[in-house]
Amino acid sequence: MRTEVYSWRLSDELKSDLERESRLRQVPVSSVLEAAVRDWLGRRDADASEDETQRRLHAAAERCLGVLASGNPRRAEAARADLRKRLGRRYAR
């Protein structure tokens, strides 16, 4: 049962879109708003757990990838040129 009232200002375009969606679904505007907010909150929870998963994966990978540490902050930018140079030396005709 809905008992709380919440109000905020919307642009004319967003209000029109919201009312159109309400008509298409044949439900009150409040139902569309509630569904949108629940979806947004659910994605925030999923994003938080995804962030934690990514942190754990990065920590695990760091243990294996330590050999790539060079101390050169511009290493990625120079990688293409360096690779071409090495391949050129190796396969020079």
Task: Describe this structure as you would to a colleague.
- The protein has about 90 residues and is an all-alpha fold.
- Helices cover about 70% and strands about 0% of the residues.
- The protein contains three helices and no strands.
- About 0% of the residues are buried.
- The model has no long low-confidence stretch (mean pLDDT about 80).
| Proportion in helices | over 70%
- Tell me the series of helices and strands, N- to C-terminal: HHH
Question: What is the overall shape?
Answer: elongated
Query: What is the terminal separation in angstroms?
Result: 79 Å
Q: Output the number of helix runs.
A: 3
Range of strand content? under 5%
Count of the domains: 1
Mean pLDDT across all residues, rounded? 82
SS-based structural class?
Answer: mainly alpha
The count of β-strands is 0
Query: Unreliable stretches, pLDDT < 50, 5 or more residues?
Result: none
Q: How is the main sheet built?
A: none
Q: State Rg.
A: 26 Å
What is the secondary structure topology, with strand pairs?
Elements: H1 12-25, H2 29-64, H3 75-90
Helix pairs in contact: 1-2
Put the structure in a nutshell.
The protein is an all-alpha fold. It is built from three helices and no strands. Helix 1 (12-25) packs across helix 2.
Keywords:
93 residues; mainly alpha; 71% helix; elongated
